[in-house]
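Lab manual, section 2.4: Encoding a predicted structure.

Procedure: take the sequence of the chain (281 residues), apply the prediction step described in section 2.3, and record the output as structure tokens. A sample record is shown.
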Amino acid sequence: MDEPIPVTRDVDWGIAKLMPDVDRARAWLLTVNGAPQSYVDLDDPTHLEFEYARRLAHAVDAATEPRRPLDVLHLGGGALTLPRYVAATRPGSRQRVVEADRGLIALVAEHLPLRDGSGVEVCAADARTALEAEPDASADVIIADVFGGSRVPAHLTSVEYARGAARVLRPQGRYAANLADGAPFTFLRSQVATFAAVFAQVCLIAEPSMLRGRRFGNAVLVASHAELPVTALARRAAGDAFPARVEHGPMLERFTAGAAPVHDVDAAPSPEPPSGSFGIG
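Recorded output:
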């Protein structure tokens, strides 16, 4: 069998590369403009290499009983890591993926095709525009993992956007977003305040060292009108290779103290990561 070789292609938002993992036979790392974007193991879609992907998966795993199919809306597609995970762990799920980069969609479809009968539909569109077109109460889970380059776009950070997500979710539904920030956490604190202004329940999953301001990194925000399974999320996050904790209630209120909700008129993208924060090699 021929050894897999790297693939490089110009896509809408820059240069995408697919690099084979030498340790796993059919696993690939996707980078865009040099930054790690997705990791996919075609033989084992339940293998989640990136910590933030595992934390997003924890939110899905704790959404309802195991194996129960879900209707999931993914804002941001990349190499379709989480859609593949949901298809494998919850057969029969209906999933819609919104990815703005048509070139990236084509690259992934060609080299990392979905399994037959995956139940995953991929469409090319802006995430906010697609969200606003979704029917009311049509999703059990919304997963937002949208980065323009290495920053969350401003129009996906506002109260108006959060209200759109709340409209699309069912009463017990859950929103989970991958965010990135570093001390003094101006962006992350504003996002907690923004979603707390719309949803009854909010929590944050992140590594303690990141929350102590020692480095720039990812944090997963989870929001719902229903009670969040904080204990289950904390147990899953603590069991990861790089353990995380779940901030909620008074501790999260202290973290967010003084931060104001963001509206469309004053929304800004997440901060530019310091050089080398998410690079390869």
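Check your result against the sample. Residues 51-61 form the longest helix (11 residues).
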